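Why should sequence recovery work at all? Because a backbone constrains its sequence more than one might expect. Tight turns favour small or flexible residues, buried strands favour hydrophobic ones, and helices have their own preferences. The token representation captures these environments compactly. In the example below, the structure is given first.
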């Protein structure tokens, strides 16, 4: 009976030793293995058999991207303003051996390296530069911390500033400044709107005056053309009337001459006919007769002759 108990105990011990010699590494992790207290190798994901009591798993390292959230830190800027800044660091272990044996705690090394260098960078900048230069600060801090952590076998993927909190009085002053800037921009926009409106009204009035002047000019031109056409028509009418009168008078003279020639009338009858023709011409208001003095004397003689002829006709 005692031998059975001893055998059972030995069997359990052997099974425990065999199980402890088998290591299963999950995906995304590695095991740092030591043999007799010295680094031996890094166990990749999968099944591994180690020597019990000889090989020892020093630590398990995650090979996945990791996030380190740094608590808010007080920083004094170049213009002596106390601000609170907190960061987030994204990193990944590339060389597990260096991360284990080159530094006691690589997480603390990353955190304190980021904090100290952040204070150095922000200490050379004013508050306005800090608030306006987050990207520049992140890039500069990333370059410095990544160069430091190269010795740890760690790659710094990104460093982001989560928040920057100035003192309360600075925040109040900034809010007042922002309000004043907004009011200033609003006043500028209103003034520009009024100016644009005034310009538009002036342009409209100018265009209206131009159109009104062009309309008046066109109206005056049409009135002048109408008057011109009316005067031309009136002149043409007068000219045609004068031409008709002249034609009639010429026809009358022609008929008188024809009658004289046919009847053989002497000079006194001719003179009488001329007097009658002049009388007819003088009755038309459109005719104007300008006669020299000699012609008037001749007309006087002709009139006397006409009187004699008239008396003779009455005696007969």
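From this structural description, the recovered sequence reads:
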């Amino acid at each position: 009976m005692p031998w059975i108990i001893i055998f059972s105990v030995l069997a359990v011990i052997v099974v425990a030793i065999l199980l402890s010699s088998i290591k299963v590494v999950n995906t995304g992790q590695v095991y740092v293995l030591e043999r007799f207290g010295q680094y031996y190798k890094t166990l990749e994901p999968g099944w591994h058999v180690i020597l019990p009591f000889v090989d020892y798993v020093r630590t398990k390292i995650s090979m996945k991207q990791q996030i380190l959230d740094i608590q808010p830190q007080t920083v004094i800027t170049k213009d002596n303003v106390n601000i609170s800044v907190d960061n987030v660091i994204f990193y990944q272990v590339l060389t597990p051996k260096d991360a284990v044996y080159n530094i006691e705690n690589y997480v603390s090394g990353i955190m304190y390296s980021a904090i100290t260098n952040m204070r150095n960078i922000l200490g050379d900048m004013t508050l306005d530069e800090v608030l306006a230069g987050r990207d520049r600060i992140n890039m500069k801090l990333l370059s410095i911390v990544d160069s430091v952590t190269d010795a740890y076998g760690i790659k710094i993927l990104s460093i982001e500033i989560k928040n920057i909190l100035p003192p309360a009085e600075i925040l109040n002053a900034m809010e007042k400044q922002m309000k004043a800037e907004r009011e200033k921009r609003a006043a500028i926009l209103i003034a520009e709107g009024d100016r644009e409106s005034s310009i538009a009204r002036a342009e409209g009035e100018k265009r209206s005056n131009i159109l009104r002047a062009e309309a008046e000019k066109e109206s005056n031109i049409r009135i002048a053309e109408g008057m011109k056409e009316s005067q031309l028509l009136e002149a043409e009418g007068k000219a045609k009337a004068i031409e008709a009168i002249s034609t009639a008078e010429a026809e009358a003279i022609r008929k008188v001459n024809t009658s004289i020639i046919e009847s053989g009338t002497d000079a006194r009858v001719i003179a009488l006919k001329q007097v009658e023709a002049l009388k007819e011409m003088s009755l038309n208001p459109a005719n104007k007769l300008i006669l020299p003095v000699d012609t008037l004397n001749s007309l006087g003689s002709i009139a006397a002759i006409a009187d004699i002829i008239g008396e003779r006709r009455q005696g007969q």
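A few observations help interpret the result. The CA atoms of residues 75 and 113 lie 15 Å apart.
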